[in-house]
Amino acid sequence: MQHNIYKSLGAYVPEHVTPTTSKVLSPVKLKSAVDAANLTEMWNMILTLDYGVSTVKELPQERQDEFLNVMSLLLQAFDR
Questions:
Q1: HEC sequence for the chain
Q2: What is the mean pLDDT of each run of 10 residues along the chain (80 residues)?
Q3: Most exposed: 29, 42, 75, 77, by fewest CB within 10 Å?
Q4: pTM (predicted TM-score)
Q5: Contact between residue 71 and residue 34 where contact means Cβ atoms under 8 Å apart
Q6: How far apart are CA 60 and CA 13, in angstroms?
Q7: CB contact at 8 A, 29 and 50
Q8: Can you say whether the dihedral through the CA atoms of 55, 32, 18, 47 is positive or negative?
């Protein structure tokens, strides 16, 4: 007989709402990795068009984290 143990995981939040990455890079290391992968134009385009700023430092902390997380996910996707 199988016994299943269920834990309460809290409220479910889809990953597309709050994406997570397995490796968290500092903004400087992430920018270097983006540059090395020839994704600098994508970095600038997303920052300018989606966030309306020219540098990451102009964003509030929460939006910075969101942007860096998006870029980390894109870097992982293009790195495959």
A1: CCCCCCCCCCCCCCCCCCCCCCCCCCHHHHHHHHHHCCCHHHHHHHHHHHCCCCCHHHCCHHHHHHHHHHHHHHHHHHHC
A2: 61 62 72 94 95 93 92 88
A3: 77
A4: 0.68
A5: yes
A6: 23
A7: no
A8: positive
